[in-house]
Amino acid sequence: MMRIFLCIMFFSIGALLFSCKTIRMDTAVPDKKAEEPRIYEVPEIVHEVKKTQEKYSIGEETQSTQVEEPSEKSAEEPAEPQPSGTDIHEKEDELIVQRYLQSMTLEERVGQRFISNIEGSEFSDRIVSLIHDEHIGGIILYPWNVQDVHQVKNLTETIQRTAYENNPPIPLFICVDQEGGRVNAFKLRETSQLSPPFFWAQHNEPFFIEAAAYITCSEISKLGCNMNFAPVLDLYGHPDKTIIGDRSMGKDPFTIGTFGISYMKGAKRAGVIPVVKHFPGHGSSTVDSHHSLPVVEKDESTLRDQDFKPFQMAIESGADAVMTAHVLFNQIDPEYPVTLSSRILRGILREQFGFQGIVISDGMSMGALSNNFEITETLKLMFKAGVDLILVHHKYNLADLKRTVYELYEHGEITQREINEGVERILKIKLKYGLISKDTVFLLSDDSQSAPDLN
Questions:
Q1: Is 290 an annotated catalytic residue?
Q2: Tens digits of per-residue pLDDT, 261-303?
Q3: How far apart, in whole angstroms, are the C-alpha atoms of residue 331 and residue 350?
């Protein structure tokens, strides 16, 4: 038996050696002169990305089989840590964002800071002007913009096609309020009409929330929308349907935070940007901010344990966008509501919670702001507080708003950095979700009449 085993083993080894030899013979490279490589003009950004790749050997596998003897220095000093793949891709994305930014005029940069409503349900010259002349960052659709599935898809496709005609071509955020329950822009036969989120939470099942988000966002994505102003992370503090009420997923902060994370997963899986709202909480108010300015008297410690908690959980789980509440938290900032408060948006949201995504204002024409603050002051405070996207309704003319921003800048009321930082965050999110392509950066014009460096 042992002899038979040894014979089989030697036969197998011989066959393996023969096959290796055959493979080497078959894959030998013919001895012929290689063709001269073509030389192309490459934009500067390509060289920058290539430098990053070469520095960290991106995409190349080490093929050397030699083992180097450690030197005395390497034995004494630890090797310098190499950046992770995530760090490298973030560096590449930063280079691309900067390339876009450098190709934009000041007017284009300011335009990106606004989301505008549109009138009617058909594509119009007014929409063309918003895109080509005002260079808006996004539009929002309301029920009066909707007739049927075919009309909505044609409208959103035409909007994005028009945005691609700009130089640089930057597609728009196409936003919608599709929360479920009573807040739905699309009430079409082809779209699911889900119960209010409060009743989703009654199942006490995160997968149910994720599935509801996936269904909702898949449907709006097919209609051409890429951003949903949901989920609502406000506490169910007062069962009043005119304010938050059943738009909330409950009273327990941890439960709402958990369900909010599940919602974000479902939305992102559908390719839609979820916007958690209304930071840092609207549920404790009995006043409707569409008409008046709500004032909350809770102390900061209580707020951190209650209203703030769901938002902090969502941010720690990778929230990309937050919508502000037009609510004044008297114990934190007795002067300004959240949307205008540097103390809350920069101090708490950015610095303490570490949020790096985009901050979106609730509608600036809502009574909480428009009845208490003059428009020039509102715009100035929004830029100072770090609001990246300003939601504009029919009450204001976008060209007039942009003109006011230019005047604030010329008079030194807002800085170049405060204009620029919001555009950077907007471009990063548009890049992350595929609205702008890494390939498109190579097509950007080098002779654009760009604004001065705002860094």
A1: yes
A2: 999 999 999 999 999 999 999 877 777 788 889 899 999 999 9
A3: 19
Q: How far is CA 382 from the centre of its chain?
A: 19
Catalytic member of 320, 333, 362, 388: 362
Name the domain count of the chain. Answer: 1
Classify burial at 66, counting beta carbons within 10 Å of its beta carbon; exposed 0-12, middle 13-18, buried 19 or more.
Answer: exposed
- Check if the beta carbon of residue 271 is closer than 8 Å to that of residue 221: yes
Residue 95 belongs to some domain of the structure: yes
List the domain range (segments joined by +) for residue 174.
Answer: 87-443
pLDDT digits (tens, 9 = 90+) for 48-83: 444 544 443 434 333 333 444 444 444 455 556 666
- State the catalytic residue, choosing from 290, 291, 307, 439: 290
Looking up residue 437, the CATH number of its domain turns out to be 3.20.20.300
Judge whether 325 and 362 are in contact, CB under 8 Å. yes
Active site residue 362: yes
Nearest CA to 137 among 302, 408, 358, 346? 358
Which helix H or strand E contains 199, and what residues bound it?
Answer: helix 197-200
Integer angstrom CA distances of residue 389 from 37, 332, 444: 47, 23, 24
